[in-house]
Every structure is written in C-alpha cells, then in structure tokens.
Amino acid sequence: MYKKRDGNPREKPDISEKLPLKITSVSTQKKRKDRFSLFHDDTFLVGVSSQTLTDLSLKKGVELTPFLFQKILEAEEYQKIKDTFYDYLSRRDHGSFELKQKAFKKGYPADVIDDVLNEFDQKGLLNDESFAKKFAADKAEFKNWGPIKIKAALRKKGVGKNVADKAVRTITNDLDQVQICVDLLTKRKRHFLRETDPLKRKQKMYRYLAGKGFTAPIITKATDTVKNDFDV
Q1: Is 6 left (phi over 0), alpha (psi -120 to 50) or beta?
Q2: What per-residue confidence (pLDDT) applies to 169?
Q3: pLDDT per residue over 200-230, tens digit each?
Q4: Structural fold of domain 14-122
Q5: Is 213 left (phi over 0), alpha (psi -120 to 50) or beta?
Q6: Residues 184, 212: contact at Cβ < 8 Å?
Q7: Is the pLDDT of residue 43 over 80?
Q8: Which residues of 9-21 are buried (b: 16+ CB within 10 A; e: fewer)?
Q9: By C-alpha distance, which of 100, 113, 157 is closest to 134?
Q10: 69 φ/ψ sector (left φ>0, alpha ψ -120 to 50, else beta)
Q11: Does the pLDDT at position 140 exceed 90?
Q12: Considering only 13-17, 74-78, 122-126, which range has the smallest mean pLDDT?
C-alpha cells in the first residue's frame, strides 16, 4: 500500500474515489514543460513527470484504474527522490550516506531511497571514494583542516573507515602538514604574542592546531619551528 512519508497511509486525492476513468487528454503543464496533466474530459486526474508518462505508457484512451493510479503515485515518489538527488549532486559531491540522510529528513520512504541510491550507484553517479578525496582536499586547502578533523567529518558523513583513511593519507602525503601549521601560527602571531609566558603561549598554539585537526608530532614540529620567531 502506498505510504505517506511519515509512515501513515496517504489520503488519496478525491479522484481515486471515481476510478476507473478513461484518460481523454494529456497536456504539457505551463510552468514545467517536463510534466504533464492527465484529464478525463474536463476533470483533472493527476500530474506526472515525462519519465512516468513514458514508463507507464500513459496516453489518451488509457483507462486509469485504481491499480494504475497506485503505480503512478509510486513512480512519482521515486522520480521526486531522483530529482532531489540530482539537485543535491548538481551543487556539490555527496556521499551515498549523506544523500540518504538528507532524503530521510525530507520524509521520503527508506526503501524507495535505497532503490534510487542503487540506481545511481549502478549508473556511476555515486562514488564514496571520489567524494571523500574531494571533500578532504577542499577542507585541507580552503579550511586548513588537519587529518584528524577531516577524518572525523568524513566518518560523520557516513564514509567508511577504510575510504576515509585513504582520503586522509592522500592529503597528508600531498601537503606539507608542518608548513601548513607554521603558516597558520604565523598568521595569528599577534594573537599568540599577547600571551607573554612562553610556555602558556606554546600551549595556546598547541590547542589551536589540535582544534584544526593536526596530529601531535606535526604540531610539535611546527611550534618548534616558530619558537625563535615567537619568543621575543
């Protein structure tokens, strides 16, 4: 049975009480050329996407039975989730788990979400490894995040441990982590110099870089590198 997104049975439109009815005309919707309206004489039956129209062979003369109406509702739900995923992916890369969580929050049925994700995966539209690498590169380059913070963010987005580890290793190997930390400290030099006690100053620098997600050995090397320049 067709379910409402909150899990309760959906109240079918009034037209369902009048079925079966023959489709007497199909017209393109004015605001959306990729959607069509089905009519029985002057009575509006249902609006469908071009994909649903094709898949279910909906055309003039077809009898809209309760069973066919049910299939239309299910096809439209599926298509709506697909359109939602395409919209998300057009803005930026997403991992499969992240897409699923977003769709679930919108109230879409979990089983239909999984079906759409399987289709996207088969079509090569989803690649968690590619997503993880791009996410890691973006956070390292534009946010100056360290490997610990990047890995934690990837895991939170549902990326598997092995995939997250691989993405972080790539960033760690490609970028000079110590130099990044030195640059971060240098940019905030005036802030750190407000602390006159050298030990407390070093502790503040350590906490700052740790908060950025860098490892203890990298932080130690960076703070040692700037020590002479900061100890004035």
Answers
A1: alpha
A2: 92
A3: 999 999 999 999 999 999 999 999 999 888 8
A4: Arc Repressor Mutant, subunit A (1.10.10)
A5: left
A6: yes
A7: yes
A8: eeeeeebeeebeb
A9: 157
A10: alpha
A11: yes
A12: 13-17
Q: What is the pTM of this model?
A: 0.66
Which has the closest alpha carbon to 95: 117, 112, 62?
117
- How many residues are recorded in the chain? 232
> Tokens representing 6?
């909150």
pLDDT in tens, 159-179: 999 999 999 998 888 889 999
Q: Are 46 and 13 in contact (CB under 8 A)?
A: yes
* Interior angle at CA 209, CA 205 and CA 210, nearest 5: 110
Q: What is the Cα–Cα distance from 3 to 11, expressed in whole angstroms?
A: 9
